[in-house]
Amino acid sequence: MSDDAQQPPNETHGHFLDEPELPSGVTRFWLIRHAVVEAEARKVMYGALDVELCAETMAKQKAGYRSLAKRLPRAASWVSSPLKRAQDTAAALMAASGHDAGTLNIDERFIEQSIGDWHGTPHGEFPSLLSLPPNPFWSLAATETPPSGESMLDVGARVGRALEERASASEGQDTVIVSHGGAIRAALAHALQVHPETALRFSIQNLSLSIIERIDGLWRVVKVNELPDFGG
Asked: What would the 3-class secondary structure string for the chain be?
């Protein structure tokens, strides 16, 4: 190999992540699912309904908020779904990380899947409403469109557009997005260029962290469903 063809020793090749710290200057999204909602809401299919967080669980998980906040970049922009449970989770994390809650931006495109007329249906009654077999790891198939609602294909389209637009507007920067299980699965589907039905196989737990990056117009997944330390 000639000297001109050799890779300079200090130049990154392949964007490998060999160090424990993520490099700066990368267009990166830190995706966080909201905290656990209150008990009555969990009895029904709440989807995109604006339900409250569980105050008792939040009090028990204070250590988890501190743990998660420590992992988040200090200079990031903060974005939330318009639903109160996401905004309240974001506010709690921002307080734990020392950020000003007034800098939280709302983007309705990161809202949870709307199940339209099926909102509020008890879990036991929900399967009788479906026209397609549900995904084994979601309450309905990705192609099922509830009356006056949206399919996961629709969710994937709006989340994908939002990510591309925000990536272009904040190139080389970090963005924390507090959202929902369905929307985060849609983000992973967009990053991996897979069908939303496949992405529904990801487990996205409350207060979990997933990270995706856009580099040279291409997306990659850095981590999925990483939970904070709730005991520390």
From this structure: CCHHHCCCCCCCCCCCCCCCCCCCCCEEEEEEECCCECCCHHHECCCCCCCCECHHHHHHCHHHHHHHHHHCCCCCEEEECCCHHHHHHHHHHHHHHCCCHHHEEECHHHCCCCCHHHCCCECCCHHHHCCCCCCCCCCCCCCCCCCCCCCHHHHHHHHHHHHHHHHHHCCCCEEEEEECHHHHHHHHHHHHCCCHHHHCCCCCCCCCEEEEEEECCEEEEEEEEECCCCCC
